[in-house]
Design goal:
Layout: H1 2-23, H2 32-43, E1 54-60, E2 65-71, H3 95-108, H4 142-145, E3 174-178, E4 184-191, H5 195-208, H6 271-278, H7 294-297
Antiparallel strand pairs: 1-2, 1-4, 3-4
Helix pairs in contact: 2-5, 5-6
Length: 304
């Protein structure tokens, strides 16, 4: 009898291990090298905000962390006073867990029917909103977010890799990843700047990742079943994928119900002028397809 119980226990453990392995499979999403290269390109491209260094996280369809990277803002440094001297990246430390939280949110609340970026959730979770309280569900697991050697944060062997970090984030920076067949395979989360700039950098990091761009969103379905984004004015013609929606009026009401506030950080770059291009430009060529002339997006007032 003891032998039978032991065999059953071994079989159960084996099945559990096989199940865990399948859940942790990262074959369908970008790996560390791909994430790092794409994030570096997007971070250095003047996409709004303070041009700070950034964290990026990729999760698979089950929310398991597959890659974490940090990125240096480029030779020109940032608006706050030049480069940090650390060419491996010096982003806000607290934004590492937030980037993973954003990735988890984007994959957890997107489906084959609807692609939602974290920016799309802001208005819905405010008091009186259709998703009020969502931001308090599914909290980040601190055992995952803060485990391991901090010296490995943002590297190929970041301690979060292989674990579910959880969390719900409701401002810009998290976007779902769909493959070429329009199948939801994971998500990316970016953090380190204003939430509006985080969305821009996350959006263009995704465009820099070969095979995961916004053009994949309408695939796999047609008509209303292929919505893959939210209405900006209540009509199908106004669906703009999972781009950030700036439609909150003076009374604080979002016309679409999924709007995000303008960040308006003094002396930061104009993030909206960048994200507006996402709706009118073929961004499949990456950041090179955008107009990022500083005369358009940097403030005209001298911060000194």
């Amino acid at each position: 009898m003891k032998k039978i119980v032991s065999l059953v226990a071994v079989a159960t453990l084996s099945m559990g291990s096989a199940s865990a392995f399948a859940a942790n499979d990262c074959a369908d999403v970008p790996d560390y090298a791909e994430l790092k290269a794409a994030l570096d390109t997007a971070t250095a491209a003047d996409l709004g905000g303070l041009n700070f260094d950034m964290w990026g996280t990729v999760v698979n369809r089950n929310g398991v962390v597959c890659a974490v990277a940090k990125s240096f803002g480029g030779a020109e440094g940032n608006l706050a006073g030049g480069d940090t001297g650390d060419t491996s990246g010096d982003p806000w430390l607290g934004s590492r867990a937030i980037s993973a939280q954003k990735a988890n949110t984007a994959v957890a609340y997107s489906t084959q029917f609807l692609a939602l970026s974290t920016a799309n959730l802001y208005s819905a979770v405010q008091p009186g909103g259709s998703l009020y309280g969502l931001q308090h569900s599914n909290p980040v697991d601190p055992r995952v977010a803060y485990r391991g050697n901090p010296d490995h944060y943002g590297s190929a062997n970041d301690p979060m890799v292989g674990f579910k970090v959880g969390g719900v984030n409701v401002f810009g920076g998290g976007l779902p990843l769909y493959d070429g067949d329009g199948v939801l395979v994971g998500a990316i989360g970016v953090s380190g700047d204003t939430s509006c700039a985080d969305h821009n950098v996350g959006y263009m990091t995704r465009e820099e990742l070969t095979g995961f761009g916004v053009a994949n969103l309408p695939a796999h379905a047609s008509g209303f079943g292929g919505l893959k984004g939210w209405f900006t004015d209540g009509t199908l013609d106004s669906v703009t994928g999972d781009n950030i929606i700036y439609d909150i009026d003076a009374d604080g009401v979002s016309v679409s119900g999924f709007g995000h506030p303008l960040c308006k950080v003094r002396f930061s770059q104009n993030e909206q002028s960048v994200s507006d291009q996402f709706d009118t430009t073929d961004t499949s060529a990456g950041v090179s397809s955008l107009t990022t002339d500083k005369s358009d997006i940097w403030p005209t007032v001298d911060p000194s």
